[in-house]
Amino acid sequence: MIGMFFGCVAGALLAATAHVGAVPARICFALGAGAVQLRLLCNMLDGMVAVESGRASRVGELFNELPDRVSDAATLIGAGYSAGGFPVLGFVGACMAMFTAYVRAEGKIAGARQEFCGPMAKPQRMFVMTVAALFCAVAPASWQARWGAAGAGILSIALGIIILGTVITVIRRLCRIVSQLEGA
After folding, report:
1. pLDDT per residue as tens digits for the range 113-161
2. pLDDT in tens, 33-75
3. Which fold has domain 2-183?
4. Residue 91 neighbours by CB distance under 10 Å
5. Interaxial angle between packed helices 58-80 and 2-16, expressed in degrees from 0 to 180 and rounded to the nearest 10
6. Helix or strand run (H / E) with residue 61
């Protein structure tokens, strides 16, 4: 739940960059990147503690997955509304992130092992967001070109990479799940 909090904070900080001056935007980008990493750290520690202490449960698995979906959506939609973002890309990225998790869950329900393969699973999506936010925090303004009437920029590129990568991820996961189920 703390990880979900940080995911929502990351999204809010990224979205705030479109509504503040240049220096506060850089600070928001840097803090947003930090919040993304804190979200991942909380998620990792939660799973490690549950497994190592022997307290992993089916209810715990549920409460591990649902906050992840909220965190992904908040972060990616926030990136869509950021300086250099494009809202439609944020929403599509969030939908694709949920779809990758959905495919994994459906595969498990059908009897296959859980597929966490990428190239754009949760850690990779959040890596792309972190790098893009840090770039926007430290790169000179002249390196942060904007295109079109909507002012799409670095965060739009990052979201595009995430969307393309999640399409590939979904296809890979589906192929692996089908192969497992046909081989069983």
Report:
1. 999 999 999 999 999 999 999 999 999 988 888 888 778 899 999 999 9
2. 999 999 999 988 877 776 677 777 777 777 778 999 999 999 9
3. Four Helix Bundle (Hemerythrin (Met), subunit A) (1.20.120)
4. 16
5. 0
6. helix 58-80
* CA atoms of 60 and 121, how far apart (whole Å): 20
The domain segmentation of the chain, as residue ranges, is 2-183
Tokens of 26: 């850089």
- Residue 52 corresponds to which amino acid? E
Are 161 and 91 in contact, with CB atoms under 8 Å apart?
no
Residues sharing a CB contact under 8 Å with residue 117, sequence separation 6 or more, in sequence order: 169, 172, 173, 176
Q: Do 132 and 158 meet the contact criterion of CB atoms below 8 Å apart?
A: yes
Q: How far apart are alpha carbons 68 and 130 in whole angstroms? A: 16
* CA atoms of 98 and 91, how far apart (whole Å): 11
Give the C-alpha distances (Å, rounded to integers) separating 173 from 17, 127, 183: 35, 20, 15
